[in-house]
Design a protein that fits this description.
The complex is a heterodimer of chains A (168) and B (103). With 168 residues, chain A is an alpha+beta fold. Chain A has five helices and five strands, in the order βββααββααα. In chain A, strands 1, 2, 3, 4 and 5 form a five-stranded antiparallel sheet that branches. Chain A is globular and about 60 Å long. Helix content of chain B is 49%, strand content 17%. Chain B contains five helices and three strands. In chain B, helix 3 crosses helix 4. The radius of gyration of chain B is 15 Å and the shape is globular. Chain B has 103 residues and is of the alpha+beta class. Classes of the chains: A alpha+beta (168), B alpha+beta (103). The interface between A and B is medium-sized, with 35 and 27 residues.
C-alpha cells in the first residue's frame, strides 16, 4: 500500500489518496473486521486505588464504549460506500480518506493492535515474534503486525502530506 | 523529573472545606496527566496523538514520546480536575495508557 499525493475530495475537502493491491486490501478488510477488540474495562482513569473514583471510572468506560460504537458505525458506512475501493490499474485499488476519516481509522487500527496484544497476554513484542504461535495466537499476532503496517502508512501521510507518490 | 502522585479522588467541596480553603486552590491545576509506556503503541503514533490532543509542535510531542519510551512515563500536563479528566478520555480514546493523578 502506498500513499499518493493529496487530492481534492468531494465538496473541496482535501483527501489523502492511497493505492494498494488486492492482497493488501484483503488484509486491511480482515484487520478492520476485528474491530473493536478492546473492551471498556481495559481503561483505567488512575494508577491509584479506583474505589475512590468509581464515578469517574464509570464515566470513562461509558465514553470509551460510546466511542467504539460510533467508530464501528462510521467504519461500516465507510466500507459500504459504493466504489470505495476503485480499481485504478491492474491489481491496484485506490481509496481516499479525509483528514477526519484518517483520524478515526488510526484509532480503529490501534484498537485492533492493542487488543491483539492484550489477547496475546501483553508480551514484549520481540519475545512474541520469536515464539512459535499457533491457532488464535498466530492470528492475533498477524493482525497486530498488519494493523501496525497500515498505521505507519497513514501516519506517514498525515506527517508529510506533500511527500506521497504523484498520481499517474 | 520526580512526580509524587496520590489517588485522584476529586476535591471535596462541602461547606466546611470551602470555609477552610478556596476551592479554586484545590481544583486549579492540581492534577497531572501521565502517559505510561507499553510495548505496543508505535512511537510515531504516540507522537501523532500528543500533537493532535494537545496541539503541540512535533518537537515537543516527540520529546514526551521519548520520555515515555525511555523513562517509562511522562508527565504531560498539570491541569484542573475537569481538564485532566478530559485529556485522559482523549488519550485513552486513542488507545494510550494515560492516567490522571493528584499531585
Amino acid at each position: 500500500m502506498k500513499f499518493m499525493r493529496p487530492q481534492k475530495g468531494g465538496h473541496g475537502v482535501a483527501a489523502f489518496a492511497f493505492q494498494m493491491n488486492r492482497q493488501e486490501m484483503d488484509w486491511l478488510l480482515a484487520t478492520l473486521k476485528l474491530y473493536p477488540l478492546l473492551d471498556s474495562t481495559y481503561h483505567h482513569i488512575t494508577d491509584g486505588p479506583a474505589a475512590e473514583i468509581q464515578a469517574e471510572q464509570q464515566l470513562l468506560e461509558e465514553a470509551m464504549a460510546q466511542q467504539r460504537a460510533d467508530h464501528r458505525r462510521k467504519l461500516d458506512k465507510f466500507l459500504a460506500t459504493p466504489g470505495r475501493f476503485r480499481l485504478d490499474a491492474p491489481d491496484q485499488y485506490r481509496f481516499n480518506l479525509t483528514a477526519e476519516q484518517m483520524e478515526w481509522l488510526l484509532q480503529i487500527l490501534n484498537d485492533v493492535r492493542v487488543g491483539c496484544w492484550v489477547k496475546l497476554g501483553r508480551p514484549e513484542l520481540e519475545t512474541a515474534r520469536r515464539r512459535e504461535l499457533t491457532g488464535l495466537d498466530a492470528r492475533h499476532m498477524a493482525a497486530l503486525e498488519a494493523s501496525g503496517f497500515f498505521q505507519m502508512i497513514l501516519l506517514q501521510a498525515a506527517k508529510s502530506p506533500g511527500e506521497g507518490v504523484s498520481p499517474p | 523529573m520526580s512526580v509524587t502522585v496520590t489517588p485522584i479522588a476529586p476535591p471535596k467541596t462541602d461547606k466546611k472545606d470551602k470555609e477552610k480553603t478556596d476551592p479554586r486552590d484545590l481544583r486549579d491545576r492540581g492534577y497531572v496527566v501521565i502517559c505510561w509506556n507499553d510495548p505496543v503503541n508505535l512511537m510515531d503514533y504516540v507522537t501523532h496523538v500528543f500533537q493532535t490532543v494537545f496541539g503541540w509542535p512535533k518537537a515537543r510531542a516527540e520529546r514526551h514520546m521519548l520520555q515515555v519510551h525511555q523513562s517509562g512515563k511522562s508527565l504531560l500536563v498539570r491541569e484542573t480536575f475537569e481538564k485532566a479528566e478530559h485529556y485522559v478520555h482523549q488519550l485513552q480514546g486513542y488507545g494510550l495508557h494515560a492516567t490522571m493523578e493528584r499531585e
